[in-house]
């Protein structure tokens, strides 16, 4: 089966590419404009097309050339704060880009679509762990772009028969066991790589935003899922689409969470660095606890996480960051 991995040079997409490339039944074509991705993450022998999903002509060219049978869609602008200051840019890349991709799929009769959705569609959830069917109320443009795509997908299925799976990730983290690929965002806003930058001497202290939340140590609780476990979920979602020919939406969380202080403590243990911390004012719109239940993914997709503790996750991230202290560019 020929599969387009759009955004396959990015953090999560590159881990999916590595997992999928171990399975002989799939032929992978990466589509990425390298706005945030890294060509260094692409394994030898994998086809790569430098194309922008907001460019209809480029999409027409790659669909005509490769004739994919499924599309996995990781491309997006992903920084919540930036989405507040540049909502139009976010709707353009995340919504308009996806519409162009779906139009190309419709024209070229591609039937299966897997979408990188997010916990941000739930906003400040009423219930925790967040059930798969929790009400969706995003509180920032980023989350709303993802929810908008989920709605577009439902109507597109009705009209054109494109079957889709939406995977709502919580905090993606960790790196490939080999240490060869990992997380390299610019700017980096995710907790674990930022903590590890302190251990690498690239930052002085880790900032903790608020320590008076109603949690066991006063810091926010988040759900951390290893990026290789997310990759496995995508493969299971593709198998599901082909087997069942049915659309669905799944939360991908761990059902449990760690406080910011617990993640820092685990990182101290793994790196042997004291990782000094400083308490800052809480950030607006940061809920105390964000944890997901993944019952539906476990039951229907047969998804099972391999990385169950924060120590296991940080260990893999540390291996990547130690060998790439400045990311892929390593300058
Ligand atoms: N990282 C997380 O914790 C997390 C959590 C929930 C959801 N997600 C979603 O998962 C997906 C992947 O996230 P990531 O952390 O790997 O991000 P990333 O920035 O590392 O990867 C995105 C990739 O898409 C490419 N891209 C962006 N716009 C493009 C365009 N117009 N045309 C072609 N390529 C384009 C970038 O160059 C990059 O390689 C995103 O859709 C994100 O919203 C991520």
UniProtKB/TrEMBL annotation:
What keyword terms does UniProt attach to this protein?
Answer: Carbohydrate metabolism, Isomerase, NAD
* Broadest EC class assigned to this enzyme: isomerase
- The NAD-dependent epimerase/dehydratase domain covers which part of the protein? 3-253
Q: Spell out the InterPro entries in the cross-references.
A: Epimerase_deHydtase (IPR001509), NAD(P)-bd_dom_sf (IPR036291), UDP_G4E (IPR005886)
Name the needed cofactors.
NAD(+)
Give me the reactions it catalyses.
UDP-alpha-D-glucose = UDP-alpha-D-galactose
- Give the metabolic or biological pathway: Carbohydrate metabolism; galactose metabolism
CDD domains to which the protein is assigned, alphabetical? UDP_G4E_1_SDR_e (cd05247)
**How would you summarize the oligomeric state and partners of this protein?**
Homodimer.
Q: Which family does the record claim for this protein?
A: Belongs to the NAD(P)-dependent epimerase/dehydratase family.
Quote the protein name from its UniProt record: UDP-glucose 4-epimerase
């Amino acid at each position: 089966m020929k599969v387009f991995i759009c955004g396959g040079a990015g953090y999560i997409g590159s881990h999916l590419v590595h997992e999928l490339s171990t399975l002989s039944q799939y032929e992978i074509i990466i589509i990425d404009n390298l706005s945030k991705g890294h060509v260094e993450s692409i394994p030898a022998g994998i086809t790569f097309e430098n194309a922008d999903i907001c460019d209809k002509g480029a999409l027409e060219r790659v669909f005509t050339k490769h004739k994919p049978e499924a599309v996995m869609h990781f491309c997006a602008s992903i920084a919540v704060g930036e989405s507040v200051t540049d909502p139009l840019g976010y709707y353009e890349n995340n919504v308009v880009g996806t519409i162009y991709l779906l139009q190309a799929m419709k024209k070229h009769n591609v039937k299966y679509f897997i979408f990188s959705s997010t916990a941000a569609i739930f906003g400040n959830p009423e219930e925790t762990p967040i059930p798969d069917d929790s009400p969706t109320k995003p509180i920032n443009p980023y989350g709303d772009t993802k929810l908008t795509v989920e709605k577009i997908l439902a109507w597109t299925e009705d009209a054109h028969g494109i079957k889709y799976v939406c995977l709502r990730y919580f905090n993606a983290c960790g790196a490939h066991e080999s240490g060869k690929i990992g997380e390299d965002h610019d700017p980096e806003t995710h907790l674990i790589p930022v903590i590890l930058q302190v251990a690498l001497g690239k930052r002085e202290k880790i900032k903790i935003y608020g320590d008076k939340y109603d949690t066991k140590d006063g810091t926010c609780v988040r759900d951390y899922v290893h990026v290789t476990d997310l990759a496995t979920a995508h493969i299971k979602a593709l198998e599901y689409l082909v087997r069942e020919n049915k659309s669905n939406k799944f939360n991908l969380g761990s059902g449990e969470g760690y406080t910011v202080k617990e993640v820092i403590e685990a990182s101290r243990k793994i790196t042997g660095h004291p990782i000094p911390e400083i308490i800052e004012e809480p950030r607006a719109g940061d809920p105390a606890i964000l944890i997901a239940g993944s019952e539906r993914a476990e039951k229907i997709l047969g998804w099972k996480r391999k990385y169950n503790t924060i120590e296991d996750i940080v260990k893999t991230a540390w291996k990547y960051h130690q060998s790439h202290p400045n990311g892929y560019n390593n300058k």
